[in-house]
Structure formats: structure tokens, C-alpha cells
Specification:
With 328 residues, this protein is α+β, with helices and mostly antiparallel strands. Helix content is 38%, strand content 15%. The protein has helices at 15-21, 36-48, 53-64, 69-81, 107-115, 126-129, 134-155, 174-177, 240-252, 255-260, 274-288, 301-307; strands at 51-52, 85-86, 102-105, 161-164, 185-191, 194-200, 204-209, 215-222, 266-270, 296-299.
């Protein structure tokens, strides 16, 4: 009988052992029955790009309630062995950061979702798409963790629905839906007497739908504190002020209406520290002339962990203790 792969902490493995765990066995399971839980695992990984085994377990608990973690881990191994899921190879470079295996969508997983009518193209080379760098993996996992917080908050509140990223595509204009990058906000503006083109790519675009189809639309920016907030030249791509300018000009030019069909939107920035929030607000005031305070909201992971993503954990340039569902 083939020995079942190790289910524990990746950080305890040696590099050769981990590399072996990222490879599939020569004799994968010949047959097994796909369950609804398997489908939801594959859907979640397709939706977020990458998820750790811990994130997958937490998401399943939101959907189905308490369950055996070890059973889920064993099922993830089966789905990996059978090409429904992949384990991106670069995760072995950061053992100290990834305490659990990371999973991406596999070839058979893409075929499964296509058969179920989900918007996934099975012709894509999903194995090749899972060769992302360790830095990209980290950012994707952190973004997924943030959106899982919103998912949990919406599911625990009556009459709330989360439309997350790809789920928004049926609601955007036809021309936008056909773009290669439908959520890239494209604006052109004048700065220092020069015409400047700015492309802002949110980490996530999503809506929270209340009863009576009232929608709150958001662009998420997950800031890791690695770029300058401001720079001598705002046209430099390595500063956060450029993002602020792009969103502000997009709002002024009503690009959100033309491109996404949004009546309005807000930019949510999650950043590591209160000091960095203060610096971002200073840059925002300078760029906007202290206008449209409600357009930009800021928080930290600590604030969200304490009260949840829908709690009064957000700050604007004018107020603190703001909830995203406040009718202000």
C-alpha cells in the first residue's frame, strides 16, 4: 500500500523532503468519487488563484460547518495526486512563510469546473500557470486571506451577498467583459504640464449587495509596505501616490461608470501600520486638494482581526471608526 503523504507543518521538512512532496506519485488514485466538498475546494482555488490548506479548511467550515481537518488534508492530497489541484513549485523557497501547502488549480480541476458551467477555460495550461514566484504567491495568499474575511463577514450577516471579482463580470458592460484585463482602470491626466497615462490594477474588485439590490462597490489595495508612499516624481511606478492619483482621476472622469458600470466606488487600502496610514492620507490630501475624503478608506490587519472586515475598522482623511456599510 502506498504510504500517505505527510500532512503536517511544512516548516519541519528538509528541502529534499519538501521537493518530493511537491511531486506527484507514479501511481495516482485510479478512481474516486468527486463530492460537493471537492467541487467547492476546486472552485475556491480557481477563484483566488492560490490558497493554503489552512485557508481551504477555513473556507469549507464557513460553507459546511465544523469538519475534520485531517480528512480535508487527506482529500487535498488525493485531488493533487489526480491533477485536480497543483502545488506551485516556488513554495519551497519560503518554508518559514508557508506553514501549510499551497494549492493552485490543476488540469483536471479546470475540466471539472468547465463541465459544471463555471467560467474556466480548460484549454489553458494550468500547470504552467502555477509556476509563480514566491513573492507573487505571498501577495496572492494575503489577498485571498483578506477576501476570505469579507466572505465570512457577509455570510454571517443576513441579506448580504458578496460579488467577488470574476462574479462581477456578468454585471459589467459588454465591452469591458471582452477586455484581457477588465479590472484595470485606465486614465490619462495632466501632471506638471505633461500628459500622463496611468493604469491602476486593483488587487481585487468586489461588491457587497444588500437587500433591494443596493450595492457597495470597492477596489482593494493590499499594501505590504514595500513601496514609497510618495516620490519626487509621481509618474514613477514605485510609489503609492501614483495609485491614489489614478483612482482620483478615474473617479473624476467617471471611468468607474464607463468601464465597470458602477454608480460609485471606494478604494480600500489595508496597510501594515497606523503611521503608514497617516502618510497615505497626507499624500491623498495633497493630490486631491483635500477633496472626496469618502473615496479612500484605510485599515490595518490588526484592526480587521479585532472586529472583522465589516466592523468600524476603517479610517478616512476626515474620520475614524467607519463601517463599510455605513450610509454616509
Amino acid at each position: 500500500m502506498r504510504k500517505r503523504p505527510y500532512n503536517g507543518d511544512m516548516a519541519t521538512m528538509t528541502a529534499p523532503t519538501l521537493l518530493k512532496r511537491l511531486s506527484r506519485p507514479e501511481n495516482p488514485p485510479s478512481s474516486f468519487r468527486i463530492t460537493q466538498r471537492d467541487v467547492e475546494i476546486v472552485r475556491a482555488v480557481a477563484r483566488f488563484g492560490y490558497l493554503t490548506s489552512e485557508q481551504i479548511i477555513r473556507y469549507l467550515i464557513v460553507l459546511f460547518g465544523p469538519m475534520s481537518h485531517q480528512q480535508v488534508l487527506r482529500r487535498l492530497h488525493i485531488l493533487f495526486d489526480s491533477h485536480y489541484l497543483n502545488r506551485p513549485e516556488h513554495q519551497h523557497l519560503q518554508l518559514s512563510s508557508f506553514s501549510h501547502f499551497v494549492y493552485g488549480l490543476g488540469r483536471e480541476g479546470a475540466h471539472l469546473l468547465a463541465r459544471l458551467g463555471d467560467p474556466v477555460d480548460p484549454r489553458l495550461q494550468w500547470a504552467a500557470k502555477n509556476s509563480a514566484s514566491a513573492t507573487h504567491l505571498m501577495h496572492t495568499l494575503e489577498t485571498a486571506q483578506t477576501m476570505l474575511e469579507f466572505e465570512r463577514a457577509c455570510r454571517s450577516t443576513a441579506n448580504l451577498q458578496l460579488l467577488d471579482h470574476a462574479a462581477l463580470l456578468p454585471h459589467v458592460p459588454d465591452a469591458t467583459r471582452e477586455l484581457d484585463h477588465p479590472f484595470r482602470l485606465r486614465v490619462t491626466t495632466q501632471h506638471d504640464f505633461k500628459k500622463v497615462a496611468i493604469n491602476v490594477v486593483p488587487d481585487r474588485v468586489f461588491s457587497i449587495v444588500l437587500a433591494a439590490e443596493q450595492r457597495h462597490n470597492f477596489c482593494l489595495e493590499l499594501d505590504r509596505g514595500t513601496m514609497s508612499v510618495a516620490a519626487r516624481r509621481i509618474t514613477s511606478k514605485s510609489n503609492y501616490a501614483r495609485k491614489i492619483l489614478g483612482y482620483y482621476e478615474g473617479w473624476k472622469q467617471q471611468r468607474h461608470r464607463d468601464q465597470w458600470g458602477f454608480q460609485g466606488f471606494r478604494v480600500l487600502t489595508i496597510t501594515p501600520s497606523e503611521t503608514r496610514i497617516a502618510n497615505m492620507i497626507d499624500a491623498q490630501r495633497d493630490i486631491t486638494g483635500n477633496r472626496v475624503a469618502a473615496l479612500f478608506l484605510y485599515s490595518t490587519p490588526e484592526r480587521i482581526a479585532a472586529k472583522g472586515a465589516l466592523g468600524d475598522v476603517w479610517m478616512s482623511s476626515e474620520a475614524d471608526g467607519i463601517s463599510l456599510l455605513d450610509r454616509k
